[in-house]
Q: What sequence folds into this?
């Protein structure tokens, strides 16, 4: 049963300044409980805003350090989930359910990637 | 690159995810898991007809549940049809408890638990329990279960049909046991999950991934059970044990499929996330325990000792030997005793281990068990008694069940000769 990493990308400039609504947090909590109870969710978390992040780059044998926000990308990683699923179809089904708990004004992209094993 | 799943595949995926809950919810109404599964299948057929045309509903699980329940209530209301259905499985309306009203959806966890205790019921043979549990709770098809067990599909299909019939004719109540037999019944549930895991774990050979896949199916069942029974320490103990065992999967076989012994495994290939989950589940087992740890929690604690050692040399054999001692006292078995002997030999030296192994020589249960001569050979080799060790390895090779293990043991025999 492969494991999948869902990288949740959000457009921070379009996300509500006051953060997710209480209603969204409640629905999200219920969904995460459901996915965990299904024995699928191995780990999940949200990340603090990219403004508090730092990217450290290795290029041409040199290190460069840049503090966030990372203006060169419209969407940044805002969270992740690691799920163990029978196949990709199942991982996509759970991902759709995760997206559907958001209000319509959100723009969220989940990049679902299989974790290489062995 | 995996293609996008087709619409039908997506619908079947939703069904597989929801199926245990739908079957459980309907079984409460019709009081029979066989009939419940049929009604759930009817709901799938309806979904396959409707969804591609009208779109997938917002809450597909609720749609399937409502459809299946609706059919269940209908069936029960049309008493003649229901009576005929019951007659097919050897029951009649007079002896069948009256169906209850469909309950609050929040009770679905209780329904799932009822389903677990029903598919793992002791009136069924262990083979029937594993097949029915994988089918109704693991969401595996009959074909998948057959492939994983290396038996023809009709055999499994028959096994499942007979199991459902047995539950019906023996009037097994669709309920979670409380009171005096609860512990024994829970033990049966845990053993079924462990048995499924072990079938996959022992099947390191072969190209068919469905056999090792059984480990993951079992692990998923254990995780589900942990969330359904959060107050049961042995449930967390089993989950923890399986998380630890599964964490070593990548290191257990070499590139050519040969088994790699624990001492030779590349521990960097152990999955740290599963180890962390094993540790967390073991903490929960400790936190919920009211008395001494049970057999699964003890096995998890032993596995945790291995997981904490970054190299074989750092293994805390004293603690492991102590834990095996507790396990032997709690649920004595020759195999546990053999493992204890290995741990004692590592903690106190090969002579102490050999003493324990020799006490097992006459054990009928171990007569054809290749690990007994294999362990004995290893201890003799460590004591410098090469000729005797060689004999033991040759004997172990003749008893080994798979080719790869046989090669490994003959290799050790050859080492003793040189």
A:
């Amino acid at each position: 049963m492969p494991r999948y990493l869902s990288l949740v990308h959000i457009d921070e400039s379009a996300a509500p300044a006051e953060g997710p609504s209480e209603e969204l947090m409640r629905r999200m909590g219920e969904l995460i409980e459901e996915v965990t109870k299904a024995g699928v969710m191995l780990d999940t978390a949200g990340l603090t805003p990219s403004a508090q992040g730092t990217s450290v780059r290795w290029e041409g044998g040199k290190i460069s350090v840049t503090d966030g926000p990372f203006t060169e990308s419209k969407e940044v990683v805002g969270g992740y989930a690691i799920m163990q699923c029978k196949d990709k179809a199942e991982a996509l089904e759970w991902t759709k359910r995760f997206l559907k708990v958001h209000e319509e004004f959100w723009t969220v992209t989940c990049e679902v990637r299989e974790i290489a094993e062995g | 690159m995996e293609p996008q799943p087709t619409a039908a595949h997506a619908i079947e995926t939703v069904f597989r995810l929801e199926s245990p809950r739908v079957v459980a919810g309907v079984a409460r109404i019709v009081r029979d898991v066989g009939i419940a599964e049929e009604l759930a299948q009817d709901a799938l057929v309806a979904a396959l007809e409707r969804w591609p045309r009208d779109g997938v509903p917002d809450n597909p699980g609720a749609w399937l549940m409502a459809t299946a329940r609706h059919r269940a209530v209908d069936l029960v209301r049309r008493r003649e049809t229901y009576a005929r259905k019951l007659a097919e499985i050897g029951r009649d309306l007079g002896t069948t408890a009256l169906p209850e009203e469909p309950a609050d959806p929040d009770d679905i966890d209780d329904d799932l638990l009822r389903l677990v205790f029903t598919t793992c019921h002791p009136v069924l043979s262990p083979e029937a329990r594993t097949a029915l549990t994988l089918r109704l709770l693991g969401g595996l098809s009959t074909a998948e279960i057959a492939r994983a067990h290396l038996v023809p599909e009709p055999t499994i299909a028959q096994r499942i049909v007979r199991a459902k019939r047995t539950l019906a004719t023996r009037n097994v109540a669709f309920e979670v046991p409380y009171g005096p037999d609860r512990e024994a019944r829970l033990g049966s549930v845990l053993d079924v999950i462990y048995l499924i895991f072990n079938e996959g774990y022992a099947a390191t050979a072969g190209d068919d991934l469905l056999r090792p896949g059984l480990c993951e199916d079992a692990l998923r069942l254990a995780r589900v059970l942990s969330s359904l029974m959060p107050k049961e320490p042995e449930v967390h103990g089993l989950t923890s044990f399986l998380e630890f065992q599964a964490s070593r999967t990548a290191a257990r076989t070499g590139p050519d499929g040969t088994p790699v012994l624990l001492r030779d495994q590349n521990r960097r290939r152990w999955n740290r996330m599963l180890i962390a989950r094993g540790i967390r589940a073991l903490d929960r087992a400790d936190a919920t325990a009211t008395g001494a740890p049970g057999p699964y929690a003890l096995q998890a604690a032993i596995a945790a000792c291995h997981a904490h050692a970054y190299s074989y040399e750092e293994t805390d054999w004293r603690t492991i030997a102590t834990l095996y001692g507790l396990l032997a006292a709690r649920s004595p078995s020759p195999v546990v005793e053999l493992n204890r002997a290995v741990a004692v030999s590592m903690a106190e030296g090969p002579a102490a281990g050999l003493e324990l192994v020799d006490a097992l020589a006459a054990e009928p249960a171990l007569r054809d068990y290749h690990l007994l001569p294999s362990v004995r050979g290893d201890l003799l080799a460590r004591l410098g008694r090469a000729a005797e060790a060689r004999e033991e390895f040759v004997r172990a090779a003749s008893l080994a069940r798979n080719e790869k293990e046989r090669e490994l043991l003959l290799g050790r025999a050859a080492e003793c000769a040189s």
Q: What stands out?
A: The longest strand of chain A covers residues 76-84. The mean pLDDT of chain A is 92.
